[in-house]
Amino acid sequence: MAVDAATRAALVEHARLSIKKGSQSFSAAARLFDRETRERAWLLYAWCRRADDIADNQDMGGELGDQSDLAERLAHIRRLTALAFAGQPTGDPAFDALGVVAAEVGLTEQMAEDVIAGFQLDAEDWRPRTEADMLRYCYHVAGAVGVMMAVVMGVSPEDQETLDRANDLGLAFQLSNIARDIVEDDAAGRCYLPMEWLAEEDIEPGQHTKPHHRAELAAMAARLVALVEKHEAAARVGAAKLPFRSRWAVLSAARIYGAIGRKVRKRGAEAWNSRTYVPRGEKALYGVRAFLSAVINREKMPPGGIDWGIADYRPASAPTPPPRT
Q1: Confidence class of residue 66 from pLDDT cuts 50, 70 and 90?
Q2: How far apart are CA 86 and CA 70, in angstroms?
Q3: Per-residue pLDDT tens for 117-175?
Q4: I need a surface site. Which of 160, 237, 319, 325 has the fewest CB within 10 A?
Q5: Are the beta carbons of 135 and 34 closer than 8 angstroms?
Q6: What is the C-alpha separation between 295 and 69, in angstroms, rounded?
Q7: Are 321 and 77 in contact (CB under 8 A)?
Q8: How far apart are CA 49 and CA 26, in angstroms?
Q9: In 3-state terms, what secondary structure has residue 50?
Q10: Burial 180-210 (b: 16+ CB within 10 A, else e)
Q11: What percent of the chain has pLDDT over 70?
């Protein structure tokens, strides 16, 4: 979507305010980018936030609204997204922001559709039956966003190997969040642990957060963190191809989210007595270490190598973008 400088500046400012209100952590991380990449990250975030809010019928991640018209809301998201990719005005600054950043860096409709599929899964209160289901969910709600962010950072949409590693970063983020928020999610009526895992621990659905199951819950969290570390290591390897400041940002984020997971594992059965977080000083330390790693740029390949990619987590029957009208 081609716009003049004034219109682009207005969209960037709208996006900046959106991220400032909606995600302080993302806003802080974006400061590591150069100005051009930071603005594009804001533009992408604005679309993600707005589309997610439409899907959940909420405002800035607030209280959920009426879910009876989900199909209509998802169709609305897809219509506006298609207009944005067609370079047409949408009447919504967040979707116009997507059109601008997509035209500037080469984002594709399929990338956006994979993210929308994640909004749909969340809005439909979908539950994973297997570990593979859980990882597909993580791809759609986080890995696919990581892929789009990689393109924003300058990765070619054709560089599948690097996009695969960007997906790993998203998977590590989401798996760490799942481990940290098991009890909080249960209180909201959601569970992202695979049903097969619960069955293996002989836990009935909906009973996994009961006090007498905390040891089993800690064991499942440890399984999640093992997956976090697997994908964290792969993401750090993939960061090698990024420009320095983007590489620094990715390595910082990977370390911080990996640390959240490891803290959950270390706390064991007490991990959900209070929220697990990384203190500001510790985050700064990870930032310094990431800076040094970004300078050296020699991340070690994880044991056993890397033999997986997006194709392993994206369903073969993934939806395709709607036809343009």
Answers
A1: low
A2: 24
A3: 998 898 888 899 999 999 999 999 999 999 999 999 999 999 999 999 999 999 999 99
A4: 325
A5: no
A6: 50
A7: no
A8: 12
A9: helix
A10: bbbeebbeeeebbbbbebbeeeebeeeebbe
A11: 92
Give the whole-angstrom CA distance, residue 78 versus residue 130: 28
What is the DSSP annotation of 162-173? HHHHHHHHHHHH
Q: Could you state, in order of their start, the residue ranges of all structural domains in the chain? A: 1-105, 109-325
Residue 323 has pLDDT above 80, yes or no: no
DSSP string spanning 116-167? Answer: HHHHHHHHTT---SSHHHHHHHHIIIIIHHHHHHHHHTT--TT-HHHHHHHH
Global pTM reads 0.90
Closest CA to 238 of 182, 188, 306, 314: 306
From residue 303, alpha-carbon distances to 165, 170, 230, 307 in Å are 16, 20, 9, 11
Question: Do residues 165 and 302 lie in contact, with contact meaning Cβ atoms separated by under 8 Å?
Answer: no
**What's the CATH number of domain 109-325, 2.60.120.650, 1.10.600.10, 2.170.120.40, 3.40.50.300?**
1.10.600.10
Asked if 55 and 82 count as a contact pair (C-beta separation under 8 A), the reply is no
The residue-averaged pLDDT of 107-111 equals 97
Return d(Cα 19, Cα 132) in angstroms, integer: 31
What is the chain's mean pLDDT, rounded? 91
| Helix 35-56 vs helix 144-152: crossing angle, to nearest 10 | 150
